[in-house]
Amino acid sequence: LSVWYVGFLISLPVGFLFNYSVPFLMGNKRLFNDEVAIIGEGTVDEYSDIKIISVNDTTAFPPYNVKLQNLKVYNGHKIEKILYYAASGFSAVGGPLAEVFDVATRDAFQRSKRTRFVCSGRSYLCVKVDNDTIIFADRYGIASQGIEVPNEREEHNEETSVMYMACNGQLCAKMYINYMIDEDFAITVRSLNKHGTSVGIRTFDPNINNEIIKKQTIFRKSELCVIKLNREDQMPKVEDKVDSGIASKGASKSLLKAIPVCKNITKIRKANLVVKIIASLVGLLLLGFAVFDKISMLSSILVGFFYIPWMLIMLAITAIYLSRVK
Predict the structure, then answer these.
(1) Cα–Cα distances in angstroms (integers) from residue 240 to residues 191, 252, 323, in the given order
(2) In angstroms, how far is the first alpha carbon of the chain from the final one?
(3) How many helices (H) and strands (E) does the chain have?
(4) pLDDT for 103-140, tens place per residue?
């Protein structure tokens, strides 16, 4: 090959093709075990700029991590009726307690089909079950609704929340509920935060708040916060079709793992671009030496040998960046 043709080959964007395809393929391979896939290379740019993302409360607190530990009855109410109201009430808004109470009452009785959301605030939830008004709240939330709470010592650990329940303005129960955040979700949140993305938990549950998260994790408020929902149109729903560049066969928390991968692929492309520019400059410098030495012909094998070390460097950069994703 003539030296000028070799120079043309050196300037070809082979490194650019390698830079775009290989990180994308390696990133998807890393997500394969989590049953997640990034669909289309354009998705990488779309999701790499995300600064905040929100998830349903069942993603952070799956039902198997939420336990009803104890229940105290007030004003002569029956336990069966209390569980009926709880199962029916939370079925209207979803969340981990909807599953917890459903499992607890499934063999005993059916939930009411006449339930609807009324309103909610920072520390309370109000629903209608049949013709009864049911309020779930913490101590301050139940007091804010004008319901008197006995002055009792609350014996519970930091991972346990105390939820009061009232029916038609009368206190009927106090429940001790243990919430444990999902360990895989916590690891994913830390990974997202390291890549500049904060996570919010959407919930109607009066027990899930920033305080319970701070008590049981090392999260700062900016890393994981609670977003209190207060409208009926904010309830979680199943869509027939969703426009998304990330797909998953597993749990919704698996989808979150694709975001750090997208962010790292963007970093890989920038780093490998620098390598490609350096490779081109070195190639042109060698071409200049060949012209200066009046070398008119070079072997095509030299072009291949020239690209191999640079591609190995790009491959190493790709592997290093993707290994940082938890």
Answers:
(1) 30, 16, 35
(2) 47
(3) 12, 11
(4) 888 877 788 888 999 888 888 999 999 989 999 998 88
